[in-house]
Specification:
The complex is a heterodimer of chains A (457) and B (299). By secondary structure, chain A is mainly α. Helices cover 65% and strands 2% of the residues of chain A. The longest helix of chain A is centred in the N-terminal third of the chain and has 31 residues, at 46-76. With 299 residues, chain B is an alpha/beta fold. Chain B starts with 17 loop residues before the first helix and ends in a 7-residue tail after the last helix. Classes of the chains: A mainly alpha (457), B alpha/beta (299). The complex binds adenosine-5'-triphosphate and magnesium ion.
């Protein structure tokens, strides 16, 4: 490190940058700025801008939370869970059944009631259900080899979905309550997390007044509440994201996390050091599932309705991409991966489509035939391009696949590189008694003799 | 899911001296150990009786009988494929024996899982070092100590409890540095274990095993691929440790090394114990010479 005032400042800057929280804030801030910038290009009004920000923050937060939970499974413990969506589904469905308003008289066909419990109880119930379900899956399945375990998880998530589709569970009477899973047509969520929270804190009226006046000031037009609800729910999710992050950092940077990492590296060796690895695996899996359940609740609770179709393995795949982008094994990386995935791979294509169509004003082409024939007959590529742009949102999966292939080739360890958070409660660097600066990497060399000396410090 | 309670007591040691007392205690379910323990002057912490292990059609261990004396450095030798590693694997619970019993400190530990065996103070190293590659050397070391408070999930997470975990972590870290310095690999503390050389891995594995504070250590070829100067340093360490009360059972192919350092040598061949005794007796045993010269011994 250089001396002098300049060195001092740059050192301090480097220290700030080295802080993980700084990186995350800069990344999320940068993404938001990019979207606001693009929105300005598109001549978005204030209302549209705020809507787009609310939605972006929502997806950044949920994917980051899910990536964090999956990182506990895969990045730390080496548990190949490809049934993420199943645990999310359990979370939101149990919450729905517990907290939908109660009907004790036979309801009209198609409307299904719940137990009418307060929403916070429903959420706790949903999280617990996901945890218990995770533990039930883990108890027998964790004894299986890693690849069979993966098959079990994806199988279980599909079983969950088919159970939700099951017509015999569509409606039933339990303790006099008419409840059910709704079958293929799903459930209507007649509760409102945002309003519920405002009511609970007792600020619903001031909030309404505030949104009204802010709406007028910003010129949002009629009914500004949904816009602010979106922003407020995004902020609410960011709070949960922070909680996830703090919790999982504590789990990871501790002797508990150290054992998880060791299991990932070599379970047999870990056992031979006296660690009851099964217990650790079950705990890790259960906690991760509980968090996936919670993320599922937060994901879908504001959607107004849920159907089993939303719980196909697609989302599991998305969460894996997010984790791979960020770098499995790092909590900070997981949040980054979730944010980048949400902003560029999930929301990005749609946004890009709008930007391109807005700036180039190309004629829409509705069918593939119309797009191809000018290319073949007149070598005119414009309709084809227009068609591709128009379907950019559908090309989402292709773009994700290409990104994955690129990452696997060029940066298999994820964006953050082989950076791993130290698995201990105390800082491991700088405590070196002999004050050793990290030695240059010693490659595994054949010449063992060269390492025999004592003086290679 | 309830957290299994971890002893409040800070990292406790398995004091090797306890062994004798435990063996002398009346054992209802195992009189053999008790009887035989009285005949020998020293306690026998580890005893293997009639051990047999089959892999499909292959009989890796046919009938292994051996005892390891308290505080001894016992050598286990034999040609490749004699069944030495298999014996280790059965003793430490990695493999379930087809038949036979293993007694440790007077307790029948046959069929226990590897972690249960290790918890009792019987710890092994592997023939091919099993370092945890993508963890730093220091993390590898800090994993090992037993009874770590922070291994309970809630203690690691909850604010007040975490403080007590931190305190213990500082102590654990201190001990790990000490051990790294003792093994002269402290300059590699922040290196990924996967980047270590073969010999350094062997050192790391031994150091890590010692941090569990075992009473008996089973070392499977700890000197394989280790250069001579490092080997003699390792041997010095082992001798020091033996003096401070540790018991060792060492698999090794270097006859001279075994003959010079061990007070008792067990020779295995084709899944059975061919002979055992003091180095001089074993050295002159004709069956041993034959086995090592590559001649086929019938039976
Ligand atoms: N997991 C296994 N599956 C099948 N056969 C095995 C297994 N482990 C060991 N064997 C067989 O058991 C026999 C004894 O092997 P073992 O590893 O115990 O020998 P060893 O005495 O340790 O030899 P070395 O000195 O080469 O390490 C060998 O014939 C080996 O092929
Ligand atoms: Mg062997």
């Amino acid at each position: 490190m250089s001396d002098g005032e300049d060195g001092d400042v740059s050192e301090r800057l480097a220290a700030v940058w080295a802080n993980d929280v700084t990186k995350l804030v800069v990344l999320v801030g940068g993404i938001l700025a990019l979207y606001v910038g693009a929105g300005t290009l598109l001549d978005y009004g204030v209302r549209q801008q705020l809507n787009s920000i609310g939605l972006l923050v929502f997806y950044v937060a949920v994917f980051a939370m899910l990536a964090l939970a999956l990182n506990l499974h895969w990045g730390y413990t080496g548990l190949f869970n490809i049934g993420v969506i199943g645990f999310m589904a359990i979370g939101i469905y149990v919450t729905a059944v517990l907290s939908k308003s109660a009907t004790v008289t036979e309801p009209a066909a198609g409307s299904i009631g719940g137990f009418g419990l307060p929403l916070w109880l429903g959420i706790i119930g949903g999280v617990l259900a996901a945890a218990v379900f995770g533990a039930l899956v883990a108890l027998p399945a964790l004894r299986l080899r890693a690849d069979y375990f993966a098959i079990v998880t994806v199988g279980v998530s599909e079983i969950v979905r088919f159970t939700l589709l099951e017509s015999s569970l569509q409606q039933m009477q339990v303790f006099g309550y008419f409840i059910g899973l709704g079958g293929g047509s799903g459930l209507i969520l007649d509760f409102d997390i945002t309003d519920g929270l405002l009511d609970a804190v007792g600020v619903a009226d001031p909030y309404a007044t505030l949104t009204d006046s802010l709406g007028t000031t910003l010129g949002l037009g009629g009914n500004p509440k949904p816009v602010f609800d979106g922003l407020y729910y995004g902020a609410f999710l960011l709070v949960f994201l922070v909680l996830f992050y703090v919790l999982l950092r504590r789990v990871g940077n501790s002797p508990f996390g150290r054992v998880l990492k060791a299991i990932r590296e070599d379970e047999e060796a870990t056992k031979s050091l006296g660690k009851d690895t099964n217990r650790f695996k079950i705990k890790s899996f259960t906690i991760g599932c509980a968090l996936m359940g919670l993320a599922g609740i937060l994901f879908y609770a504001e959607q107004g309705a849920i159907t089993p179709n939303a719980f196909r393995p697609r989302i599991t795949f998305f969460v894996w991409i997010a984790l791979i982008i960020g770098g499995a094994g790092s909590n900070t990386g997981s949040v980054m991966g979730g944010a980048i995935f949400a902003a560029f791979l999930f929301r990005g294509p749609l946004f890009l489509k709008n930007v391109i169509q807005e700036s180039f004003d190309i004629e829409a082409v509705s069918t593939f035939g119309q797009a191809v024939s000018p290319l073949i007959s007149g070598l005119n590529p414009v309709p084809m391009l227009a068609y591709a742009v128009d379907n950019l949102a559908q090309l989402q999966l292709v773009i994700m696949g290409l990104t994955l292939i690129y990452l696997m080739h060029n940066r298999p360890e994820g964006l953050l590189g082989h950076r791993q958070e130290p698995a201990a409660c105390v800082p491991l660097t700088g405590l070196s008694r002999s004050d050793t600066v990290a030695a240059p990497p010693t490659e595994t060399d054949g010449g063992v003799a060269s390492n025999g000396g004592d003086g290679d410090e | 899911m309830s957290d299994t309670e971890v002893d409040e007591a800070a990292v406790t040691a398995n004091v090797p001296e306890d062994a004798e007392a435990e063996v002398d205690e009346p054992e209802t379910n195992d009189s053999t150990v008790e009887r035989e323990a009285k005949h020998v002057p020293n306690a026998i912490p580890l005893k293997v009786r009639g051990l047999r292990k089959e892999f499909g059609g292959i009989v890796a261990a046919a009938d292994v009988n051996l005892s390891v004396e308290e505080g001894s450095l016992t050598g286990l030798i034999g040609p490749n494929g004699a069944g030495k590693s298999t014996t280790f694997n059965c003793i430490t619970g990695v493999h379930e024996p087809t038949a036979g019993q293993i007694h440790f400190q007077g307790e029948d530990i046959t069929g226990l899982s590897p972690n249960e065996v290790a918890e009792r103070g019987l710890v092994r190293t592997f023939q091919i070092a099993r370092e945890l590659e993508e963890m730093s050397v220091l993390e590898n070391m800090m994993l090992a100590p037993t009874n770590q408070r922070g291994e309970s999930l809630w203690r690691s997470v909850l604010p007040v409890a975490r403080e007590s975990v931190k305190q213990q972590e500082a102590a654990v870290l201190e001990r790990c540095w000490e051990m790294l310095e003792f093994f002269e690999i402290d300059h590699l503390a922040h290196e990924y274990a996967g980047n270590l050389s073969g010999g350094q891995r062997k050192l790391l594995e031994l150091a890590r095993a010692l941090l569990t504070e075992p009473s008996v250590l089973l070392l499977d070829e700890p000197f394989a691929g280790v250069n001579p100067s490092l080997e003699s340093r390792l041997l010095d360490h082992i001798n020091d440790l033996q003096e401070s009360g540790y018991t060792f059972l060492i698999v090794e192919h270097d006859m001279d090394l075994i003959m010079e350092n061990c007070e008792h040598v067990i020779v295995m061949h084709q899944g059975t114990v061919l002979t055992e005794g003091a180095p001089d007796e074993v050295r002159t045993n004709e069956a041993v010479i034959e086995a090592y010269l590559g001649g086929e011994v019938d039976g």
